[in-house]
Design goal:
This protein is α+β, with helices and mostly antiparallel strands and 170 residues long. The protein has one domain (9-162): 3-Layer(aba) Sandwich (Aminopeptidase), CATH 3.40.630.30. The chain has helices spanning 16-26, 29-47, 98-112, 129-136; strands at residues 9-10, 54-61, 64-72, 81-89, 117-123, 141-146, 156-162. It has a seven-stranded mixed β-sheet, with helices on both faces. α1 runs antiparallel to α2. The radius of gyration is 15 Å and the shape is globular. Bound molecules: coenzyme A (COA). Coenzyme A binds next to β4, α3, β5 and α4. Coenzyme A is lined by residues 26-27, 87-89, 94-100, 120, 122, 128, 130-131, 133-134, 137.
């Protein structure tokens, strides 16, 4: 899978530590560790010519990594569904429109790849308050939740959006 885009640069294996540290700062240390593990798995698969359905992109400003966003397609299907993955903007750069730019750019890549439903896993937890508000203002609708999902008991929340000309909640 390729991801040619003016705004987004494909992430490289050498970005893992900086990207995971950004996730830890933007979300929390647990998420930072889980990001490093997922990204390590992804690049390990890539090194062996395996497609794990994931792709990650970074945004740099003056050489510094300030944002990241990814897509995760479950390789078993459904064909038109894709999940947003490791979406975060460095706290020093939040609230300036960068998150919106990253989401718009990755939605374009998802559509070019033939995906039509964009799903997001997030949490009913204070660390994700900004993210839930952001999704609700970005055309997603709350599609469901799983109670008691995180170690501290917070529910997992799924948001969904139909990709296309009229980007509305599913
Ligand atoms: C969710 C997240 C990626 C959004 O990134 P961001 O760069 O802050 O997003 P934007 O700047 O485009 O939009 C954020 C807010 O700033 C506002 N904003 C955008 N440009 C602005 C500007 N120039 N001046 C003032 N406000 C602005 C937007 O209207 C938006 O407000 P709202 O949330 O009340 O709708 C970011 O908050 C983040 O990294 N959160 C922590 C990590 C996380 O939870 N990721 C998602 C996991 S599921």
């Amino acid at each position: 899978m390729t991801g040619k885009n003016d705004l987004l640069e494909p992430m490289s294996e050498g970005d893992i530590d900086v990207a995971a540290a950004l996730v830890a700062r933007a979300m929390n240390p647990d998420e930072g560790r889980w990001a490093a593990r997922t990204m390590g798995f992804h690049f390990g698969c890539q090194a062996h010519g395996l497609d794990d359905g994931r792709s990650y992109f970074v945004k740099r400003q003056g050489g510094t990594l300030v944002g990241l966003v990814g897509l995760h397609h479950a390789v078993w299907g459904p064909e038109e569904n894709v999940w947003l993955a490791w979406f975060a903007v460095d706290p020093d750069w939040q609230g300036k429109g960068l998150g919106r730019e990253l989401l718009t750019a990755v939605e374009r890549i998802a559509m070019e790849r033939g995906f039509r439903k964009l799903l997001v896993e997030t949490y009913e937890h204070a660390d994700f308050d900004k993210a839930r508000r952001f999704y609700e203002r970005s055309g997603f609708r709350r599609a469901g939740e799983i109670a008691n999902y995180l170690p501290d008991g917070a529910p997992m929340v799924v948001y969904a959006k139909r990709l296309g000309q009229q980007s509305q909640g599913l």
